Amino acid sequence: MAKQISELKLGILGGGQLGRMLIQEAINYNLTTLVLDPDHEAPCKNLANYFECGSITDFDTVYKFGKKADVITIEIEKVNIEALEQLEKEGKMVFPQARVIRLIQDKGIQKQFFKENDIPTAPFQLANTKEDLLNSSFPFPYMLKQRKDGYDGKGVMRINTIADLDNAFDSPCLIEELVDFEKEIAVIVSRNSNGEVKTFPMVEMEFNAEANLVEFLISPSTYPEHVQERAETIAKNIAAALNITGLLAVEMFITKDGQILVNELAPRPHNSGHHTIEGNYVSQFDQHLRAVFNLPLGDTRAINNAVMLNVLGEKGHDGVAKYQGLEKIMAIDGVYVHLYGKKYTKPFRKMGHITIVDQNREAAIEKANLIKETLKVIS
Amino acid sequence: MAKQISELKLGILGGGQLGRMLIQEAINYNLTTLVLDPDHEAPCKNLANYFECGSITDFDTVYKFGKKADVITIEIEKVNIEALEQLEKEGKMVFPQARVIRLIQDKGIQKQFFKENDIPTAPFQLANTKEDLLNSSFPFPYMLKQRKDGYDGKGVMRINTIADLDNAFDSPCLIEELVDFEKEIAVIVSRNSNGEVKTFPMVEMEFNAEANLVEFLISPSTYPEHVQERAETIAKNIAAALNITGLLAVEMFITKDGQILVNELAPRPHNSGHHTIEGNYVSQFDQHLRAVFNLPLGDTRAINNAVMLNVLGEKGHDGVAKYQGLEKIMAIDGVYVHLYGKKYTKPFRKMGHITIVDQNREAAIEKANLIKETLKVIS
To answer: Which UniProt keywords apply (chains A, B) (predicted)?
Structure first.
């Protein structure tokens, strides 16, 4: 018999909430987990079988850490790719593959990949410096995105007029046409090394404009079947073009004229899949483990309507976190609390999420609104 | 604001699979967990924030361990009660309460409690020695149970004739009339300190006669509503009579003439509630945490038909565990694997459980039968 999942060691680069929820699932398979994270109080610290406090962007640290594992995965894209490539050369299984992370790390290369593979996406242009931006004839208004290291709304700004360029990033950037969208949607697709592919049902997102973060996520979507199928097909096409092993979150826009445009990719468990823990037969975390260990993929169907709500640090609060209203929201049926084990809160920090499951979609949304008003992370 | 669950420390006596699944749930609340277990390779070892290898029956060890926690609970009844009583005197919250554990630890006192509180149960007699058994006029055949420390089919034997008494226990025992039962059932009831009480829907069990262990558990039951209500009312009455805080599993028989008789109690998460992780809105583990921290109890309704199957060590295998057929069963939709992190298997050792969830009850049972034939724990 080949080595089984219960005998293998999974190395995870990054020890945040995504790693934490991955470990919660890994426990069910007796999987040994190793985590590398620069924060000595990372959410995974007490859960991993082995926790190393160290840089995930340093070649030597990542390489030496990876040598200890049988399979290496990520919960954040900003990792040292060269070390992963070296580990792959030496026969380690790195999923998603280093070349996939390299491509996705850079929003410019990501966009070019879309173009080369006929993946629908908003028109764009690349710029290396602020000077390039000033010389560009790309029409205002547009979105300006740093090619690397942006996340959770950071590294993104809207440029309305040439005057806004005063504060623009002076680093390799991507200029993107503003999309007049009706809805932001996401599809998570998974693929194992045998080439088995499954998508989770398409979900709809509501954004908090101020925080530039997903506020509500609603699953499943109520868009017509053919729209959902189109979104799921796009996700599958991207997974196939990337030849990825693991999970891939595909964020898309539905424009007001009915087009679907791909916004961004994440080759790992993603905020847009948290609701799957309770809302779907298989969770995105279980599915990621199945994919990277080349096990049969699980049933992605929705069990129930699910609304996911990010729990963000309250404005004006910075310090040891307290969860005001927690007891009140736990009195509501079908409410699942997921706190991420972060000791300190700060404005808009992702401190946890709440999933609401209800047979009635409107009731689930109503509960989500009530919870949003009730639960506050203060210090 | 009073101290919140995320700021509290839960001490768990026992570090087996029940503690392990309790910790998986506790992670969602940022709860700090401390575990005491005599086995340095206990399933909880790598998951608890603090793990202590030590005796759970020794006064000093339990007392000192308990001093470190805010709330103390158990995952096994065989613990040092005197230490828990002392901790209660000093103001620690011990849930279930020490007096409840004391009562349930002793099957003789448990039966007397049933009698005093008009809880229906099979006729019985107590015996202190083998001599008492030989002198008893209790009619054969009967079940002979050791009053203390029996579990998983150990400490129980069937006495058909006086000749069987040669091998009988020579310790305080309980003689119990054989129940001609149609079905073994269970109801888990939970109660918080505010007195809020909720029962999980009644489940049906199928036993493996050879291992004397639950083999299949089916949720929810298909017995008529009035039978289920009666079972749930009995469970609530017991919880009220005990004035328990926490979870209480009530194992019962439905006799061929339609009576419900209580068999045994367990004041903690229980094998008969494992299916609730995926099969019900709230899991027994979440509910136990809610109860002991005096939080609102969750929605116990079944989401789907669920069948739970214990994964037992194969006969003739003793050594490092391998899970034959695991990949095959993971290819079946709605199948959830829970391995308990035990390195070594031995015949009939509980190594894990599998839950099968399906909208069709018969399909779920069929899948369970297939899994039983496919998955083998060997060495």
So the answer is: ATP-binding, Decarboxylase, Ligase, Lyase, Nucleotide-binding, Purine biosynthesis
Domain CATH for B360? 3.30.470.20
B24 to A20: CB separation less than 8 angstroms, yes or no: no
Enter the ipTM: 0.94
Q: Say how far apart CA B200 and CA B371 lie, in whole Å.
A: 26
Q: Are residues B244 and B372 in the same domain?
A: yes
User: Which residue, of A177, A193, A215, is where some domain finishes?
Assistant: A177
Same domain, B185 and B171: no
Interface mutation vs chain B, best among A35, A192, A278, A281, most B CBs within 10 Å: A281
Do A44 and A76 form a contact (C-beta atoms < 8 A)? no
Residue at A232: amino acid letter: E
Residues A88 and A236 in one domain: no
Tell me, yes or no, whether A263 and A134 share the same domain: no
pLDDT by position in tens, chain B (length 379)? 478 888 899 999 999 999 999 999 999 999 999 999 999 999 999 999 999 999 999 999 999 999 999 999 999 999 999 999 999 999 999 999 999 999 999 999 999 999 999 999 999 999 998 889 888 889 999 999 999 877 666 789 999 998 898 888 888 999 999 999 999 999 999 999 999 999 999 999 987 777 666 679 999 999 999 999 999 999 999 999 999 999 999 999 999 999 999 999 999 999 999 999 999 999 999 999 999 999 999 999 999 999 999 999 999 999 999 999 999 999 999 999 999 999 999 999 999 999 999 999 999 999 999 999 999 999 9
* Same structural domain, A12 and A159: no
The answer to whether residue A191 is domain-embedded is yes
Closest partner residue to B323 (CB to CB) among A6, A46, A290 is A6
Number of structural domains found in chain A: 3
Q: Is A233 on the interface with B (CB under 8 A)?
A: no
Class of residue A12 by CB neighbours under 10 A (exposed 0-12, middle 13-18, buried 19+) = buried
Please report whether residue B115 resides in a domain: no
Residue with tokens 């299984």: A93
Query: For position A32, which CATH number holds?
Result: 3.40.50.20
Same domain, A277 and A142: no
Q: Nearest by CB to A339, from B30, B324, B357: name it.
A: B30
The residues near A82 (Cβ < 8 Å, ≥ 6 apart) are A59
pLDDT in tens, A120-137: 999 999 999 888 988 888
Mean pLDDT calculated for residue range A86-101 = 98
Question: Which residue from A29, A299, A338 is facing B334, i.e. has the nearest CB?
Answer: A299
| Structural domain containing residue B264 | 181-378
Q: Is residue A144 part of a domain?
A: yes
Does B339 lie in the same domain as B286?
yes
Does A1 sit within 8 Å of B29, measured CB to CB?
no
List the one residue out of A216, A357, A196 whose CA is nearest residue A292.
A196
What tokens does A282 get? Answer: 């298989």
Does A149 reside within a domain?
A: yes
Structure token digits, residue B277: 């992780």
DSSP-derived secondary structure letter, B29: G
Distance in angstroms (rounded) separating the CA atoms of residues A10 and A44: 13
